[in-house]
Amino acid sequence: SVDCSFSRGICDWKQDADDDFDWNPADRDRGDGYYMAVPAFVGHKKDTGRLKLLLTDLKPKSSYCLIFSYRLAGEKVGKLRVFLANKKTAPVWEQNKGKDERWRTGKIEIFQEAETTNNVTFESERGKGKTGEIGVDNVILISGLCPEE
């Protein structure tokens, strides 16, 4: 498995230059490292910020599982979507509100065809809310199918 978390991960993360705002590091509650977040008040309604995970060395014709922690805290905070590079048009995962402020786990299966997925994009879309944030943390890529709970 490959640790792509932000504090000590070995993966290559890039801010998208063509979006409306950047994701920023935020300190974890327990103080051990940080996660990436977009506060609710950044930008205008429907503005988006994209954070790209560049993937190299994925084998063709294999499957992988991307596991990550996410949080949508606050009223009308917006949407969090995940896109795979070879399926640009539609998100492979989307969440538009949290039941509470807690961190949850997201999982996405990545099936490699002959052409491999070379990046995964985490996109946050600004909602109407003025408080809260969208956060992503503990991103891990493992080979094989996603484990059941």
UniProtKB/TrEMBL annotation:
Signal peptide limits: none
Protein name per UniProt: EGFL6 protein
Classification via Gene3D superfamilies: 2.60.120.200
PROSITE patterns: MAM_2
Highest taxon, organism lineage: Eukaryota
The MAM domain, residue ranges: 2-148
Protein's gene: Egfl6_1
GO cellular component, one term: membrane
